[in-house]
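Predict structure. Input: Succinate dehydrogenase (Quinone), 98 residues.
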Amino acid sequence: MASLLKRTSFSSLRAHHQAAEGLILQSRRQIHVEPGVREKALLAKDPALERFKSYRKSASSIRRVGDYLTIAVVAGCCYEIYVRAVTREEARKALKSK
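Output follows.
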């Protein structure tokens, strides 16, 4: 009788362990599930929102203009720093020569 209880308890533990492994494997596999009616409705095209959609060409051209403006601002800042450094150095030399 005791051996019968041991067998059933071990077999139930083993079955529970295998079931837990199966759940872990399923979560790792990420099984594809078709979207439901609500999800399909949310993913459908909405003509009212069409004018707010950014298209690829216009978005890339805006990005390019932004890149050029960034380069221009950084170059202007570098030039301003250079001019201030040069004028400061000239002022020091003028004070030493007097």
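Residues 54-98 form one domain.
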